[in-house]
Amino acid sequence: MIWFSKLNIERLLALLQKITGWTLLGYLIVHVIFVNRLAHGELTEPEIFKYFLVLIGSIVVFHAMNGIRIILIETGHLIPKHHMEEPWIYYKTHRIYIWVTIIITILSFFIGLYMVIR
């Protein structure tokens, strides 16, 4: 429980990265089984499946954007070179990227939902 004692945005994003990664792995396994049964005529594709794909698409977008954020931090492009003065998670470029990630993830969900409903 020490990990959760000071839950900042960086720890939350790391936790979400792990959760979305495991979710996508589970989806990939279920998807292969589902498509195999669908190809052999054992199943028909339910209508609710389209809404599930919208959710999975948004998870993919978040996972990719957060992965790019981690790469940019590791290569030093998202944080200043001398970030020892204060914690780097409070720098403006990092906060802007987090907000861009949130906005793009939400937009991808609603765009996907619009495409399904239309």
TrEMBL record:
The keyword RNA-binding does not apply. SUPFAM superfamilies: Fumarate reductase respiratory complex transmembrane subunits. The chain crosses the membrane at residues 20-39, 51-72, 96-117. Keywords: Heme, Iron, Membrane, Metal-binding, Transmembrane, Transmembrane helix. GO terms for molecular function: metal ion binding. It is found in: Membrane. InterPro entries: SQR/QFR_C/D (IPR034804), SuccDH_FuR_B_TM-su (IPR000701). Pfam families: Sdh_cyt (PF01127). GO terms for cellular component: membrane. This is Succinate dehydrogenase.
